[in-house]
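Entry 12.
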Amino acid sequence: MKRRTHLPIVYSCSGCSSAAQTANMIAIKMGREDIAEMSCIAGVGGDVKPLVRTAKSGRDIIAIDGCPLACCKSSLARHDVQLKYHFDLSKFDVPKIIGEDPDPTLYMNAYKEILDAIHFHS
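Predicted 3D structure (tokens):
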């Protein structure tokens, strides 16, 4: 896979709820559509040196959390990574439901709102 260092880096929540998986799906979609390059928040939280270096590279950072616990944002803050954008999907009316798949309509609505917020227009 080629590096896309001209793009911002996107990190997403990796929890088990429908909201967390919605965050993950949004980040994956941003990566596949060349809006951002997705990187691994678990690696940042786990102090994996190459992944921490990527987070601290000076590129714009987008963090997408599924809920107000903001685990993604907190993992980056541990390494003094400044966020350009932080999104909490509870503010997009995405419910946090354990054991349920993401709602496709809510996922697409949140995705479009995030693209609007970062001023990305294809």
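Annotation: The CA atoms of residues 19 and 94 lie 6 Å apart. Residues 9-110 form one domain.
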